[in-house]
């Protein structure tokens, strides 16, 4: 039996090529189908905005596609693993490799190496492309598919759906651009509430800037609820207790921040005495999530071994698929528990990965080694 972890160079390249081609094929198929379904539900809202046309629909598709690629890449690796290993088993190639002295781990080694490279590429893709697509799409959806707010000169992406309280009063904004004292709020609504929570006034403004202190509303429209009276004052300053630092903390969009930006936001939240369990769980999951691709060849390996003519190949493929999908269920459940404080953030992000790593290795060793 060979002592090297990898088989020969020729066999390694052959298995890696088979695996990569099937991953890309499955991923393209999933993304195209899901993107088409998503466009069917969103195209009407996009085209309802005056001036929007085919260019905006294609723009939406270009922003949505990276999200789908990021979400369904691990599923593609799982399905590609099963397709690759079942094909090799049916063609008796696995039998030939084992007859040549290769162990089960050596047969899987090219697939594991390919999955590790895909995991690293997935992390880079998420950091460079997906986060920016998330930020732009969130801001566009908040603007109801109207003009997309542009990033400021410092490269800060627009943020959406800002909601803050100043005593009994509430400040809501559809979008935010800039940072510090250069923050610009758009689609602003200021609610003046009585101590019991009853709204006394509602003031709407298309734009608000920092007035040091407070926020100056441009072209405000005030509605007095009790008297049902509408007024249009020249300008108003509201929310004098709302500082830019507080707004920047409140407006953090975890999915739109890179790994390092999210780490800095977590530090700022902890300095301010805020709970960071949800953010830290997602921060750890930025690492464990892409690494899930590394588990798929191990969990699906049960489909590679056993005689194809025994009639159990289909059952083995179903078991491999069940193990893979069980990982995604447990991973999502653990992340949700971590977000609510039920699990420590590190445990919520990493426990499913190590649990299924041990499970897959145990199944492989006990059945094939």
From TrEMBL:
Q: Which GO terms describe its cellular component?
A: ATP-binding cassette (ABC) transporter complex
UniProt subcellular location: Cell membrane
Membrane-spanning intervals of the chain: 12-37, 72-88, 108-125, 287-307, 313-330, 342-360
A GO BP annotation = lipopolysaccharide transport
The principal localisation class reads membrane
Membrane topology designation: Multi-pass membrane protein
Q: What is this protein called?
A: LPS export ABC transporter permease LptG
């Amino acid at each position: 039996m060979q002592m090297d972890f990898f088989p020969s160079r020729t066999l390694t390249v052959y298995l890696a090529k088979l695996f990569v081609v099937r991953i890309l094929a499955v991923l393209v198929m999933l993304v195209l189908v899901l993107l088409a379904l998503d466009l069917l539900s969103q195209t009407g809202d996009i085209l309802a905005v005056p001036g929007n046309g085919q260019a905006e629909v294609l723009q939406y598709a270009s922003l949505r596609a990276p999200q789908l690629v990021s979400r369904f890449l691990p599923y593609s690796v799982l399905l590609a693993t099963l397709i690759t290993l079942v094909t090799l088993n049916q063609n008796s190639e696995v039998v030939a490799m084992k007859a040549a002295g290769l162990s089960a781990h050596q047969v899987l080694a090219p697939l594991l190496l390919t999955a590790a490279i895909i995991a690293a590429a997935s992390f880079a893709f998420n950091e460079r492309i997906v986060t920016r697509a998330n930020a732009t799409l969130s801001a566009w959806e908040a603007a109801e598919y109207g003009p997309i707010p542009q990033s400021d000169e410092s490269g800060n992406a627009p943020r959406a759906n800002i909601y803050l309280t100043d005593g009994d009063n509430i400040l809501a904004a559809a979008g935010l651009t800039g940072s510090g004292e250069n923050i610009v709020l758009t689609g602003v609504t200021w609610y003046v509430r009585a101590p019991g929570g009853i709204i006394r006034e509602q003031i709407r403004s298309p734009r608000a800037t920092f007035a040091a202190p407070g926020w100056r509303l441009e072209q405000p429209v005030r509605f007095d609820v009790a008297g049902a009276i509408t007024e249009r004052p020249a300008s108003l300053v509201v929310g004098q207790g709302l500082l830019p630092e507080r707004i920047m903390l409140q407006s953090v969009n975890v999915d739109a921040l890179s790994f390092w930006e999210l780490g800095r936001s977590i530090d700022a939240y902890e300095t301010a005495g805020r709970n960071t369990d949800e953010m830290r769980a997602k921060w750890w999951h930025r690492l464990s999530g892409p690494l899930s691709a590394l588990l798929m060849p191990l969990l699906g390996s049960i489909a590679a071994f056993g005689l194809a003519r025994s009639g159990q190949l289909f059952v083995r493929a179903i078991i491999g698929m069940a193990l893979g999908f069980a990982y995604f269920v447990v991973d999502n459940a653990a992340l949700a528990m971590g977000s609510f404080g039920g699990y420590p953030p590190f445990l919520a992000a990493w426990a499913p990965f190590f649990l299924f790593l041990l499970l897959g290795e145990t199944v492989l060793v006990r059945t094939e080694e």
